[in-house]
């Protein structure tokens, strides 16, 4: 009887451990991983990378290899964009870094999640980013806040070889209060995303040559109650396609009661675009199964608040 009891306890513990593992994200150092992105070349990032502030940079292209032995290799390509291309004028500049990284859990009340810190003797400051899910990561500024991109590029990194997982739990990266209790009657968000995946998911009328979409989302609130009222979203390929309807906030989704999701057109769930609220400044596109899209080397599925 004693042996049977011990056996049952062991089995129960293994079942609980398996259930817990299914609700957590996978650290990217468990296998060699490559993250890619094109980000703005803002002042904060220039300071981290030791790039002179006076240098004019439109965007920085990232290729980051995370190795199992806590070493990383980061290849950066940056400069002024060449009009009507995805490249740089005069082929831009390059910066190749190697170093070590650590993985920690945030202990701040204003940030929740797994944080990666890259350190290299070749740059003056560490590079830090937070894991949003197994495939999507977002750079942090020197105050450990999500970095705010612009209408052209976001500070989101994307796994090159996407891990298929339709069971991952949407995170709550920051406390929801700042967004839920926002007193602004209007907020504007801009961004550019890849075209094919989101067009296929939401049956958007685009041609086979579509490789990017430009977005502007405007959220309105009631002046008395501050509750969501209407939104306007502009989707631009060659011409502007404009949609106006109602929007709503959903706090709590799946197994995370703190995750905050924006729903556009909530009364038509089959047509409703949704966003995960990273914080009041950064929104991440969700697919029709409420999972995060993963971007590519050129664009991410992220919108950034217009200052």
Give the number of helices: 4
Read across the widest sheet, the strand sequence of neighbours is: 1-2-3-4-5-6-7-8
Low-confidence stretches are 4-24
Structural class: mainly beta
Give the total of beta strands. Answer: 16
Biggest β-sheet, characterized? 8 strands, antiparallel, barrel
Q: Helical content, roughly? A: 10-25%
Mean of all residue-level pLDDT scores: 88
Write up what this structure looks like:
With 307 residues, the protein is mostly beta strands. Helices cover 12% and strands 39% of the residues. It has helices at 2-21, 43-49, 177-180, 196-202; strands spanning 33-40, 59-66, 71-79, 93-105, 114-119, 127-131, 136-139, 156-159, 186-194, 212-221, 228-236, 240-253, 256-264, 274-277, 282-286, 302-305. The strands form 2 sheets. An 8-stranded antiparallel β-barrel has the order 1-2-3-4-5-6-7-8. A hairpin with a 7-residue loop joins strand 5 (114-119) and strand 6. The longest helix has 20 residues, at 2-21. The radius of gyration is 21 Å and the shape is globular. The relative contact order is 0.14. The model is unreliable at 4-24 (pLDDT under 50).
Question: Which structural traits does this protein have?
Answer:
8-stranded antiparallel barrel; 8-stranded antiparallel β-barrel; 307 residues; mainly beta; 16 strands; globular
Helix and strand layout, with pairings?
Layout: H1 2-21, E1 33-40, H2 43-49, E2 59-66, E3 71-79, E4 93-105, E5 114-119, E6 127-131, E7 136-139, E8 156-159, H3 177-180, E9 186-194, H4 196-202, E10 212-221, E11 228-236, E12 240-253, E13 256-264, E14 274-277, E15 282-286, E16 302-305
Antiparallel strand pairs: 1-2, 1-8, 2-3, 3-4, 4-5, 5-6, 6-7, 7-8, 9-10, 9-16, 10-11, 11-12, 12-13, 13-14, 14-15, 15-16
């Amino acid at each position: 009887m004693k042996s049977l009891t011990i056996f049952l306890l062991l089995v129960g513990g293994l079942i609980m451990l398996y259930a817990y593992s299914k609700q957590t994200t996978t650290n990217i150092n468990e296998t060699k991983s490559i993250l890619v992105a094109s980000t703005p070349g803002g002042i904060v990032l220039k300071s981290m990378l030791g790039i002179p502030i006076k240098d004019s940079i439109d965007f920085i292209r990232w290729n980051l290899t995370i190795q199992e032995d806590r070493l990383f290799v980061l290849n950066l390509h940056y400069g002024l964009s060449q009009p009507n291309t995805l490249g740089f004028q005069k082929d831009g500049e390059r910066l190749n870094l190697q170093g070590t990284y650590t993985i920690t859990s945030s202990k701040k009340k204003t940030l929740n999640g797994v944080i990666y810190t890259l350190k290299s003797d070749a740059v003056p400051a560490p590079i830090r980013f937070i894991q949003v899910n197994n495939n999507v990561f977002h750079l942090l500024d020197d105050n450990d806040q999500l970095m705010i991109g612009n209408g052209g590029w976001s500070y989101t990194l994307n796994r090159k070889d996407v891990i298929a997982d339709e069971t991952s739990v949407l995170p709550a990266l920051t406390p929801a209060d700042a967004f839920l209790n926002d007193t602004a009657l209007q907020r504007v968000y801009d961004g550019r995303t890849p075209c094919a995946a989101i067009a296929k998911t939401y049956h958007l009328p685009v041609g086979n040559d579509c490789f990017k979409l430009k977005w502007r989302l405007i959220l309105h609130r009631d002046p008395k109650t501050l509750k969501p009222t209407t939104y306007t979203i502009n989707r631009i390929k060659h011409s502007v396609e404009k949609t106006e309807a109602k929007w709503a906030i959903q706090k709590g989704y799946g197994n995370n009661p703190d995750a905050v999701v924006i729903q556009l057109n909530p009364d038509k769930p089959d047509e409703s675009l949704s966003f995960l609220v990273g914080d009041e400044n950064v929104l991440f596109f969700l697919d029709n199964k409420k999972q995060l899209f993963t971007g590519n080397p050129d664009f991410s599925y992220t919108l950034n608040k217009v200052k």
